[in-house]
Known about the structure:
The complex is a heterodimer.
Chain A: H1 16-23, H2 29-32, E1 36-40, H3 44-56, E2 59-63, E3 81-82, H4 94-104, H5 111-131, E4 156-157, H6 163-180, E5 184-187, E6 190-198, E7 201-209, E8 215-219, E9 222-225, H7 246-253, E10 258-259, E11 264-270, E12 293-297, E13 315-316, H8 318-322, H9 332-344, E14 356-359, H10 361-387, E15 396-405, E16 408-409, E17 422-424, H11 442-462, H12 476-495, H13 501-516, H14 522-542, H15 554-578, H16 602-605, E18 607-612, E19 621-626
Parallel strand pairs in A: 1-2, 1-9, 2-5, 9-17
Antiparallel strand pairs in A: 3-4, 6-7, 7-8, 10-16, 10-18, 11-15, 12-13, 12-14, 14-15, 18-19
Helix pairs in contact in A: 3-6, 3-11, 4-5, 5-11, 13-14, 13-15, 14-15
Chain B: E1 6-15, E2 22-32, H1 38-51, E3 73-75, E4 78-79, E5 101-106, E6 114-116, E7 119-120, H2 123-130, H3 152-162, H4 169-173, H5 180-192, H6 200-213, H7 224-228, H8 236-254, H9 257-260
Parallel strand pairs in B: 1-5
Antiparallel strand pairs in B: 1-2, 3-4, 3-5, 6-7
Helix pairs in contact in B: 2-6, 3-5, 5-6, 5-8, 6-8
The complex binds flavin-adenine dinucleotide and FE2/S2 (inorganic) cluster (FES).
Amino acid sequence: MAKLESKVPPGPLADKWQSYKASMRLVNPANKRKYEVIVVGAGLAGSSASATLSELGYKVSNFVFHDSPRRAHSIAAQGGINAAKNYQNDGDSVHRLFYDTLKGGDYRARESNVHRLAEVSANIIDQCAAQGVPFAREYGGLLANRSFGGAQVSRTFYARGQTGQQLLLGAYSALSRAVAGGGVTLHTQMEMLDLVVVDGHAKGIIARNLVTGEVTRHTADAVVLATGGYGNVFNLSTYARGSNATAIWRAYKRGACFANPCFTQIHPTCIPVSGDYQSKLTLMSESLRNDGRIWVPKRKEDRLKPPGSIPEEDRDYYLERMYPSFGNLSPRDISSRAAKRVCDEGRGVGETGLGVYLDFGEAIGRLGEAGVRERYGNLFDIYHEITNENAYKVPMRIFPAVHYTMGGLWVDYDLMSNVPGLFVLGEANFSDHGANRLGASALMQGLADGYFVVPYTIGNYLATQKPGSRPSVDRPEFLQAKQSVDAGTARLFGINGKQPVSHFHKRLGHLMWQYCGMARTREGLEKGLKEIPALRAEFWENVKVPGSADSLNQSLEQAARVGDFLELGELMCRDALARDESCGCHFREEHQYPDGECKRDDEHFAHAAAWEYAGEGKEPVRNVENLNYESVKMSVRNYK
Amino acid sequence: MSTKTFSVTIRVWRQSAAGRPGRFVDYPVAGVSPDMSFLEMLDVVNDGLTLKGEEPIAFAHDCREGICGTCSLTIDGKPHGPHEGVATCQTYMRSYKEGDLIVVEPFRARAFPVQKDLVTDRSAFDKIQQAGGFITARTGSAPDANSVPIAKGVADLAMDAAQCIGCGACVAACKNSSAMLFVAAKVSHLGLLPQGQPERDRRVLSMVRTMDSLGFGGCTNQYECSAACPKLISHDFIARLNRDYAKAVFRTAFEPVAAGGGGEG
Ligand SMILES: Cc1cc2nc3c(=O)[nH]c(=O)nc-3n(C[C@H](O)[C@H](O)[C@H](O)COP(=O)(O)OP(=O)(O)OC[C@H]3O[C@@H](n4cnc5c(N)ncnc54)[C@H](O)[C@@H]3O)c2cc1C
Ligand code: FES
């Protein structure tokens, strides 16, 4: 059994981080440059960490599979970033942001980590403004804010609809400065394919150069993974095509526990699938639900009729009907599940039947077309570009899509996994969002981890490691890890089957969506646990990977990633089955209140489940970290 | 939405690796749906090639929503294809019709060598960025964000420049393969803000010199760059860059950059 020590500092919640900083071990400045840290990933979490660690004097090697750090998927975040600045004087505070985040996560996150996140949130905005992030401003020159779901205060900072882009470019500029100064060595187009563990500690990685195919060994005193989320296990999602689970999955297979893998957020307002060739689901901002009304026809027979020809009395404004007090602004998970339900009933619209209308007819009547254009013009343009439909004339079609993964590698208060020396930041860890993430909180977490947490906590570990003691890459552990990577590659080429990688990825996505998606049941999950291993077996017999290993080979990259997804998908089903309750985004149909709300079981499941790899073909071990709440009372989440 | 499919032929640049000779190869594509994105059409072609035992066409892509700057195809001679203000990944097959012949090439520029087929090496942009595309603000040293008010108009203009996705279409569109629009966007974004003033001269001099040393050509004011830019970044920023550069050269003639740590700008 893995040892899960959360290492939460003693003392009152609000003082923990301060007292931690006052008493943690420090590395002497002259020794810092003797330590080498490998950081994998350069999204918000990885680039902020690399830049800051190098400012502190550590030698950093930064690895990304992208051709530039600036392409990390953080670039795509739109809406904004939360911070408890209380610039609007509307009663915000560190405690309120802490409380909203914990409650939003349905009481399945570690209290002390969430509090620290809220504490450092204000520093993030200062840091980014100093770097030149062009945040939206009021006419007076001060920073502007907007409101986001799950909060009653206005604490979200933004840069048009491109907040993630601007924050990432800020972190990328800090990273670029560090590269120029020689403190960071950048390895682009290099994919980490294994973690090297020496005497129980994470001491290096194996990486493949995606252009030349060369596989190399890299040693370090500590390894930081900031490799993003794994939502592409569903194939279709709002993620970039390249986002994958390989780094954290391979670390899992080297002993790092994987916590709450089944916690997946499904966003209600995305552009629906249009065909089998589809590669991507595009997010449409949730703000549209302020003025749009969501409906489907009352009768199945009407679902393909032009919407304009369906009279009012034949339309079912189902959210308004089922949730009269919140209506079209019901929370993300409720809205997503309701859309699924009406489509399951056969009333979904569009060719595939997987879509609902988001209708601006009433809003245009009230505000005029110009009024609607002013509020949402750019979103209507994006919609038009993708669907070729004019949403001023016909209602938009939307459908929920996979958007974020709250689960990830288990970490303690220091953001270190149960494998000493392995730190995990950003979306790749499980730490702060419990069973559901609030909007605008992922960007906050990534930058908090990278700028303000790991630069301190890593010292606490490195101070226990003798300077200059990092192992040689000729140690057997490195050679064995490289061999296992090479063997995996050879195995993929050796199959020479009859189906491309995409064939298996699509089928896995269907299974995951069906059994481990918005609504889950024991029966479905048990089916998933049979069908996914069968699909995996088929993959390993029948996939076709063309080309060779010694050059740029996108099929090979994709095959290895999908191979990992085929294992991770099974673990997600296993986790969802074992968690015999509903909480946040994890909705088990067996456990709901009459109004369809999640029914938590705090007596049995107020814990994080951290899965431990037990070897090929063996059932993984489910470890638990109990969650104790000192400062808040666990209550039933109620947004009505 | 339409269910009618059609056929086209794509003429694609194939090149096995950097420095190897390349050539165009024609591939007939049937069953094209108008709702497919251009890249999804290539996905389908690649699955077909895989099944036939041929090597799929390598092309760069990631977000597929016009923001990461990875996709980079020159389609019928135009970087990012036929439409203004969109990236390759936002180009849809409804722009084409039955029987069309579509020529697909990588972004061509001396500073962007081909790695394979349609994938190029654009790391020169990272090098320009490292030369000065930043504001030195050590983590933890920042003042309260509202202690430096910035007029909304200035912040908005900085944001217009900051939108650059670093794709390189500006370079590919320019006869001289100049990177002026890319550099101008970054220099203007940071130079417009009060936080960017201390390093303003040093930044522009260093970024321009690095650009010149990496094999990008000079700007002759044709402005093909802005027209090809998926974010339609204005060439006015190039004029701003030229002014900044001239002033910086003038000022540093009196106060050497290396010793002075940048001008006062
Ligand atoms: C469309 C969209 C909109 C969003 N909008 C918001 C929003 O408004 N507000 C908000 O707070 N959050 C938002 N989110 C969520 C947020 O963007 C992400 O959770 C966050 O940016 C993740 O950052 P990260 O640094 O953890 O990972 P990423 O940005 O995904 O970076 C991962 C990095 O790891 C590297 N990498 C991965 N695997 C390997 C490997 N094996 N080897 C080498 N390198 C590797 C990649 O190259 C990359 O550099 C949104 C997400 C999406 C999809
Ligand atoms: S793939 Fe990201 S901009 Fe086109």
